[in-house]
Structures are given as C-alpha cells and as structure tokens.
Design brief:
Layout lengths: L1 E6 L8 E6 L2 E5 L8 H8 L11 E3 L5 H4 L2 H6 L5 E5 H32 L10 H8 L2 E4 L4 E5 L2 E7 L7 E9 L2 E7 L22 E5 L10 H17 L4 E4 L5 H15 L1 H7 L4 E4 L1 H12 L6 H8 L10 E3 L3 H9 L5 E4 L9 H8 L6 E4 L8 H6 L4 E4 L2 E4 L3 E4 L9 H8 L8 E5 L3 H15 L3 E3 L5 E3 L8 H4 L1 H4 L1 H30 L4 H28 L1
Parallel strand pairs: 3-4, 4-5, 5-6, 10-11, 11-20, 12-15, 12-16, 13-14, 13-15, 16-19, 20-21
Antiparallel strand pairs: 1-2, 1-22, 2-3, 7-8, 8-9, 9-10, 17-18
Helix pairs in contact: 4-5, 4-9, 18-19
The structure holds zinc ion.
C-alpha cells in the first residue's frame, strides 16, 4: 500500500491523501486550500493523480478545507462515490453550494475588471453544475456501521467530535500480504464538548494519519472561556458597544447559540440586564447550518438529547434572531442599540463579518471576540496578532476595539486531547503520520508522543509518497477483532434497545406536545428525528444479523 500526502502537509488546509493499494485507488478527503492568495492558487493546479482512476472518496467531514475541491474532482473526471456520514451529507448540501456560489460570484467580479482592462476572461474553479454533479455522488452512511466497499476494502465511520457528522475513518485493506488497517483521524474534537459526542477511541491500527493543529498548545477550559465571554458581553454592553464574534458558520456558531441559551437559562440575575440585548446570527450559511443541526439530533450527545426530550430546544432562545437578507444585515450597522453579532467567515476573509469589522474595529466601545483558529495570512490572524490598523474593502481601519481570543471554544482537541486519543491504541501502530498542523505544532507533537509512548511519528512536510510494507501478516478476522468481539455485539444490542426506548419517549412527548399546541414546523422536526432513529434501528438490526 502507498500513501501520498497531497494537502494539509505544510499548513492546515487542503486536506487530500491518496491511497494506492493492489488494484484500488481512493482519496481521503479532497479539501480546498485557504488562507491567502498563494494558497488559493494551489486550488487551480492539476491533481497529482488522474481523477478518472479514483474509485471513491472517503470524506471525514463537511468543512471546506476537507471537502471544497470535490466539485473540481468531478469536473476533472471523477465518477465514483463519495462516502460520508448522514449529517455530513446534509451539511455538504449547503456548504458546497455556498462554495460554488462564491467561486462564480468572484469570477464574475474579476471578469468585469478584466473586460474593462482588455484582459482575457477567467473561469471559476468550479460551477454550481459541477457541485450538483458532486452532490449526486454523495453516499451517506451511518456511524459505526461496517461497510464493504469492494472485495478488498471495508470501512467504518466513527464519531470524531469535531463538527456535526465528523468522522474518524477506519479502513480495512486486504492485499496479497494480508490485511492492514489504516485509521484516518480527520479533525479531532475535544472531549465533553456541548452537543457533540466525544471522539471515539480506536484500539487497533497498523497505520495512522493524524491531525495535529494544536499539537503544541493547551486550550483553556471550555467553561472558563464561556465565563470570559459573558464578562466581555456585559462589559461591552454596559459601555454601549457591540460584541462582534467572527465564527465558522458550521459548528462554532451552533455551539455559541447553545452556550448563550444555557447561560440565559442559568443566570436569571443577568437575564434582566440582557433581556433587550439581541443576539444576531448574521450569516445565511450559519442559518441554514443551524437548521441542519436541528434536523440531525440523532447524532447529538446524551445530554443534548435529554434536553430536547424535556421539550426545550438547545438551539433557540428568546433574544436570538437570524438575519437572511442583505438589508437586514446592513441595518445592524445603523442600529445604535448594543448587540451581539455572530457572523462568518470565521477567519474574516469573506462574508458579512468584514462589514461588521469595518463598522466596529475603530470603535473603542466595541469588542471583537475570536473563538476559532486563525490561519496565517488571514485578516483574523492579523487582528489577533495585534495589528494597529487593517485594510478592509480598500479602506484603512484603525483597530481601537478590544480584541479577545478565546481558545476554549476550539473545535480541535489540544495537545493533551490528541495525546489521549493516540494513547488509545493497544498495540503500537507501525507508522503514525502527522498532518494538518503548522510545522512547529507537528514537530512538538511528535516529540510529545515519542516521550509519552515511545512512538516515532513521521512529520509530513510537503507532498510526499510513502510505501508501506508490513512485517507481520494478519488475517481479516484478526483485523476485525474489535468489530466482531462479544463486547462489540453487546454494545450494538444495547444501542438497539436504547434507540427503542428513545422512540417510545419521543412518541410519548410528541403526544403531550401536540396536545399543548405544537407548530407544524416542530411536528415536522420531531417526525424527522423519529424517522432517523427508525432508520438507525433498522440498519443496526441488519448489522447484527450479519455479524452474529
Ligand atoms: Zn474541520
């Protein structure tokens, strides 16, 4: 087997890894390079393989830096299936369309300039039609289900706790010299995050490809970040300013909504002061993504599911407003009332956040609160790094607002979280490849792993191919031992019974709720949740008969 690293090798974006086995070629992710013009140019280069020869893509999650070149792959000849979880498929539907929309609009704008200057016209990276074609190849699968892709390759998608639908992918590959198991971490979340389940600990692997974004950092605790955020909000509102939160439309925004909701419920003393302070979600994409979250409650963690079963929705509260139209968004900048605006893009490179920064960065009464990773070269990174002035839409803006960077909201595990995950393997993997991190982060994490576990990690820098040969040959049964153990069967059976219980409880609550007047939208939401659970029960049922 060979692994060729083609993205996320010198930075954190453009994730794309080519696996070549005896008779098969497939990709792990096909993400977009992001962060600077130089990065953007990489997106236009030829792929380092023939897209027509790729049999399928295994997609870890919907973030554009992992999925954004899928339409390009299709445009250049890929015809296979794109496997991902249900929730990822749902998110892709809005995210890839949004990406195509941005590509088309930017080219339109460039071409108007080109035309005026007598320069040749340029083509978008891909169009909405390419995106539609890519979406038609998306094949959703369920978490924890063993799926046979062909005679030689089986896969399992496990929860990665990073964003809704995110997965750690286990790939079982049969070749002449036996069976190898490759584990691709995708992006790993932290444990005990709101809404999402914890990243699954995988016990066995021959080869591991692992992210290392925060391989050299320790996050502050999530609860500390929430307290700080609340303090910032109170301070800013009291002095008559706005709180601007640049946030990734998918994941971070929903987590912030969840946290604000909890905060309002738990602090009645502050509720009065904040009762007229509106929280605006000013991003059409975040609004659509929040709807996807509300539709996919079946993959929420237990705590959040219970919350829903109590009859409340964790992603809604009285002061929350979603703004869709441009007019609504522009109106926020003329409204003198202090307010909280959560808007994207998260690194301030595009989208409505740029307008809000332009209208608030100069204002010493306002606060800008960063809650996610800011890549080198982005507007967000320069503000976090303390720039005195920045240029937005060609205008120089002085930075007078208070700037905060709260790392406890990160969707990525920190050094200790990453170490805990890699410590879960019971046998030493033959090779661990570190990708998806800045150079210092990868090097530092490799050192940490060496000291703690004695593993030699390979720090992947630049696009390199590795040929992997096993010293020990194992059989399919040995490779699958984790999946077909009595313990695994017990777990599957207990999950089925819990799904049955959930169904009964939901039906009971639905009857109660319908009696007390539920909106059609809410009834549809509940119906969707029940359908999803039912689907899961059926598929898990068939998995048990197969394996028993
Ligand atoms: Zn991600």
């Amino acid at each position: 087997m060979k692994i060729k690293f083609l993205g996320a090798t010198t930075s954190v974006t453009g994730s794309c890894h080519l696996i070549t086995t005896q008779g098969h070629k497939f990709l792990l992710d096909c993400g977009m390079f992001q962060g600077s013009d130089e990065m953007d140019r990489l997106n236009y280069e030829e792929f380092d393989f023939n897209p027509e020869e790729i049999e399928f893509v295994l997609l870890s999650h919907a973030h554009i830096d992992h999925s954004g070149r899928l339409p390009l792959l299709v445009k250049r000849g890929f015809k296979g299936r794109i496997y991902c979880t249900d929730a990822t498929a749902d998110l892709l539907n809005i995210m890839l369309r949004d990406s195509a929309f941005i590509q088309e609009r930017e080219v339109e704008w460039k071409n108007r300039k080109n035309q005026r200057a007598g320069r040749p016209l340029v083509e978008p990276l891909y169009t909405m039609a390419d995106t539609e074609a890519a979406l038609s190849l998306v094949t959703p699968v369920l978490y924890d289900q063993l799926i046979e892709l062909n005679g030689n390759i089986k896969v399992v998608f496990n929860d990665a706790g990073h964003i809704l639908g995110s997965a750690i992918i286990e790939v079982f590959i049969t070749e002449e010299d036996g069976v190898s198991k490759l584990v691709y971490s995708g992006d790993l979340g932290s444990r005990n995050r709101p809404i999402l389940r914890d990243p699954k600990i995988i016990k066995k692997a021959d080869y591991v490809i692992m992210e290392s974004t925060y391989g050299n950092r320790i996050h502050e605790r999530n609860s500390d970040s929430i307290e700080k955020l609340v303090d910032i909000v109170l301070k800013t509102i009291r002095r008559g300013g706005n709180v601007i939160i640049p946030s990734f439309a998918v994941g971070r925004t929903q987590e912030l909504i969840y946290q604000f909701n909890r905060f309002y419920e738990e602090h009645s003393e502050i509720q009065r002061e904040l009762r007229d302070v509106m929280v605006y979600i000013d991003s059409p994409m975040a609004t659509s993504a929040t709807e996807v979250f509300r539709r996919n409650a079946q993959v929420f963690d237990e705590e959040t599911k219970e919350y829903i079963l109590r009859g409340d929705h964790p992603l809604d509260f009285r002061n929350l407003r979603f703004t869709r139209t441009v007019e609504e968004s522009v109106a926020l900048n003329t409204d003198p009332q202090p307010k909280i605006i959560i808007s994207s893009s998260g690194m301030c490179e595009a989208g409505r956040i740029k307008h809000h920064l332009k209208h608030n960065l100069w204002n010493p009464r306002s606060s800008i609160v960063f809650v996610g990773y800011q890549a080198v070269g982005t507007l967000g990174r320069s503000i976090v790094d303390g720039a005195e002035a920045v240029t937005i839409f060609g205008e120089k803006i002085h930075v007078e607002a208070e700037i905060y960077n709260l790392e406890g909201f990160s969707g990525h595990a920190d050094r200790d979280g990453l170490l805990e995950w890699i410590s879960g393997f019971r046998n030493k993997p033959a090779k661990v490849f570190l990708v998806h991190g800045e150079e210092e982060a990868k090097e530092a994490f490799a050192k940490t792993v060496k000291e703690a576990l004695g593993y030699d990690c390979t720090v992947v820098s630049g696009n390199i191919e590795y040929t992997l040969a096993k010293d020990t040959v194992i059989s399919v049964e040995e490779a699958m031992v984790e999946r077909i153990s009595p313990e695994a069967l017990r777990q599957i059976k207990s999950r089925i019974s819990s799904v049955h219980d959930d169904l009964e409880r939901i039906l009971y609550h639905t009857q109660l709720a319908v009696g007390s007047g539920l909106s059609p939208q809410q009834i549809i939401e509940i119906a969707n949740i029940v359908l999803e659970l039912e689907k899961q029960t059926l598929k898990l049922g068939s998995a048990v008969t197969l394996e028993a």
